[in-house]
Amino acid sequence: MYAWPASEVPALPGSGRDLRIHDTSTDGRVTLEPGPVARIYVCGITPYDATHMGHAATYNAFDLVQRVWLDTKRQVQYVQNVTDVDDPLLERARRDGEDWVGLAERETALFREDMTALRMLPPQHYIGAVEAIPGIVPLVERLRDAGAAYELDGDVYFSVAADPHFGEVSRLDTEAMRLLSAERGGDPDRPGKKNPLDPILWLAARPGEPSWDGGTLGPGRPGWHIECVAIALDHLGMGFDVQGGGSDLAFPHHEMGASHAQALTGEHPFARAYVHAGMVGLGGEKMSKSKGNLVFVSTLRREGVDPAAIRLALLAHHYRSDWEWTDAVLQEAVERLARWRAAVSRPDGPPSDAVVEEIREALADDLDAPAALVAVDRWAALQQSAGGTDEGAPGVVSRAVDALLGVAL
Q1: pLDDT tens-digit readout, 336-353
Q2: Nearest to 89 by CA among 50, 132, 46
Q3: For the domain 20-286, what is the CATH code?
Q4: b vs e for 233-272, b when ≥16 Cβ sit within 10 Å of the residue's Cβ?
Q5: What pTM value is reported for the model?
Q6: Cβ-based neighbours of 292, under 8 Å, separated by 6 or more
Q7: Is the Cβ–Cβ distance between 119 and 407 less than 8 Å?
Q8: How many other CB atoms are found less than 10 A from the CB of residue 380?
Q9: Where exactly are the structural domains of the chain?
């Protein structure tokens, strides 16, 4: 599966700082010190109702991670999946009387368009669940043959007891896990399971649903968590630098994925840091497909909103915070974009060295994009009020905002 075109990232003088970021598994800051190639896996969309502002906020956060790493002169190996077959997608296709393949293809194409417009750097490997099935089947067979998985009425479940580190990603107690499992695609009340939390690895073929050759597993389709594990292990290996996604993925998705990988390899950890973005709300509730309270990037673009303003609206909120999308949030971003563009359009300005270093320092400090915006705001205000004598300053600031914040001025 192809991703989307990459926008050019301008080179900046000097070098960036190593990223200090909040790790869910330790509930504290860790300093990421990757090798020459930094490795990141970010969980992708289930392609229906794309791309809403919650999606955009999540991918904006991990785009910043990439940009911080690139500024340290590292290469980045970025992998993202598309869950192009799963219960929610099939349910939406049935509801709308639409072919599930066509729905997935259309929404994935729209997601690509939105990511391109927002100048999100693309993954080097963009992998759909369907195309990953040939690599998923052997992993499930290995888990079953090692006693880390078991069959139940033709389905195959992972035994969470097989991983001594289970629970270390989300740090939740058993009751909280059980409640979230029921809310987020699990089946803790199914009779016959060894543990209510055990997640499905391979779903045996159901009438009227798509299925694939599962070898010794029989016809069926993969569970949600093993999909990402197979893709990550194939392209990144164990111990990659960042596993990323929205905060609603910490459990069960990232918890279960880590346990799958650790049981498969006997190694720990699956990822060095688990990084989660906050939720975006609308009208007092989390923006979600089930509630239908969604604001779409594509709708705003059709209404003539500059994608750079959409991106600035996202950057105005710390990536880990839960926040509300409002007309006022967007209007503030539109006005900020106009001020910045006016400031860099002048032939000279206040010295730029300090503002570039302030942006770098803010982003290295747990991706503090709001602080980075304030630094540029100060420079723009000085430019508008007093001007300056540094002929190269507007160009340097413009390149820094593009390279580090992904906003084209």
Answers
A1: 999 999 999 998 888 899
A2: 46
A3: 3.40.50.620
A4: bebbebebbbbbbbebbbbbbbbbbbbbbbbbeeeebbbb
A5: 0.96
A6: none
A7: yes
A8: 22
A9: 20-286, 305-405
Q: Residue 63's closest CA among 118, 8, 126, 2? A: 118
- Strands 20-23, 28-31: parallel, antiparallel or unpaired by DSSP? antiparallel
Across the strands, what pairs with 272? none
CATH architecture of 305-405: Up-down Bundle (1.20)
* Pair 312, 306: CB distance under 8 Å: no
Residues sharing a CB contact under 8 Å with residue 371, sequence separation 6 or more, in sequence order: 358, 362, 365
pLDDT tens-place values along the chain, 409 residues long: 999 999 999 999 999 999 999 999 999 999 999 999 999 999 999 999 889 999 999 999 999 999 999 999 999 999 999 999 999 999 999 999 999 999 999 999 999 999 999 999 999 999 999 999 999 999 999 999 999 999 999 999 999 999 999 999 999 999 999 999 999 999 999 999 999 999 999 999 999 999 999 999 999 999 999 999 999 999 999 999 999 999 999 999 999 999 999 999 999 999 999 999 999 998 777 766 666 779 999 999 999 999 999 999 999 999 999 999 999 999 999 999 999 999 999 988 888 999 999 999 999 999 999 999 999 999 999 998 877 778 889 999 999 999 999 999 9
Residue 375 backbone phi and psi in degrees, to 5: -60, -45
Token digits of residue 50 = 């794309």
Amino acid at 348: D
Torsion of CA 94, 95, 100, 104, to 10 degrees: -160
CB 139 within 8 A of CB 232: no
Please check whether residue 4 is in contact with residue 115, taking contact to mean a CB–CB distance below 8 angstroms: yes
Point out which residues pair with 9 in neighbouring strands.
none
